[in-house]
Amino acid sequence: MTNPTESSLSQASALTDEAPVTRQSLWPNYAPPLDLVFSHGKGSELFTEQGDAYLDFLSGIAVTSFGHAHPHLVSVLKQQAEKVWHVSNLFRIPSAERLASRLTQHCFAERVFFANSGTEAIEAGIKAVRGYQAAHGHTERSRLIGFSDSFHGRTLAALAAAGNKNHTRGFIPTDYGFDQVPWEDSSALEAAISDKTAGIILEPVQGEGGIRPASKEFMQHVKALCDEHKLVLMFDEVQCGVGRTGKLFAHQHYGITPDVMALAKGLGGGFPIGACVTTAAVGDAMVVGSHGSTFGGNPLAMAVGNGVMDLLLEPSLLDEVVDKGQHLQRRLHELVEKFPDQLASVHGKGLMVGVKCHAKNSELADRLRANKLLVGTAGGNMLRLLPPLNVSNEHLDQGVDVLEQTLAAT
Prior knowledge:
This protein is of the alpha/beta class. The chain has helices at residues 4-18, 59-62, 71-81, 94-105, 118-135, 156-162, 165-168, 186-192, 216-229, 280-283, 299-312, 317-338, 361-370, 393-408, and strands spanning 38-42, 45-48, 53-56, 111-115, 143-147, 178-181, 197-202, 205-206, 212-213, 232-236, 260-263, 274-278, 343-349, 352-357, 373-374, 376-378, 382-385. It has two domains: 29-62 and 317-408, Aspartate Aminotransferase, domain 1 (Alpha-Beta Complex), CATH 3.90.1150.10; 73-312, Type I PLP-dependent aspartate aminotransferase-like (Major domain) (Aspartate Aminotransferase, domain 2), CATH 3.40.640.10. A hairpin with a 2-residue loop joins strand 13 (343-349) and strand 14 (352-357). The mean pLDDT is 94.
């Protein structure tokens, strides 16, 4: 006798096969190239159904931290998928406890909250900043200071924190309790602090707004202001964290620690995950019922997150990211000298690299894609290069060669 479930699946499949597949069923908020669909990937490459290979220097916007179909990550995901997918946080999840312990062992943090994305990690951090102040009797301290050209995600509070009017227009009627000051303007930052300020939020290396590492002097000044005014310091390391800059976390370049840090993207290696890590003082203010996430700490995500940590903590990995980043930047500087009318400068840390263009960055990115090199764009008219952390030097050279050939043909 046919299994009813199999029969139902066959009927559903037949109905699906008869229905036309069209992009019109999706919201029109994305505009991908219509003629490009990838069927699979391996390492630093993506492949179309026709067998064309594309060199991936975008990594899903810093997400596929160890490339495509990494054997270890595939293995841990498969193993977990055959056990249990979801139980919710009404029950203990040992793999979440393990990942939280590993994160806290390797940074300032003592408490971790797991979510599904970077913007959710940011939201959790914003609540934690305000929750900490309220728990200590400072309910009037609810405002956070952010910086121009920042990007913290697409939820309303995350958009308000960055204050980019192109993103907030039509969606946010008020400032949601955020103030913005110009990037690295210490005087404006000092002037913005008031008795209603709860904390400061910034990216140690800006991503969407342009690949711009903060200066050490500015970061240390921000930390000193937070200490002086008893403000909570929050770092957004959704893009620049998890080994991307050659340190496990980007703020470790600066010799300071925050009170709150948001992580995501590369932590899941391609599987959706977010984490808000905090000091004990901040985390313990978030008591039962103060925040939650149905899918946060999901066993599948935690299995992959622990797999990513296995790879990140290999003894030589971060040194290799530094070396590869230096190699990539050296070659890119050579192209700036060779094509000064098209390229202006090179920026970044580790394998988070931006190339400031004279030509329109989006048009150059399109030409590179036509030549089978995938890159991103960022503010400041930059190309954004985010190859996997385990990219080979051969692929780095291949990518730069494609860029050189594309520039020469312009």
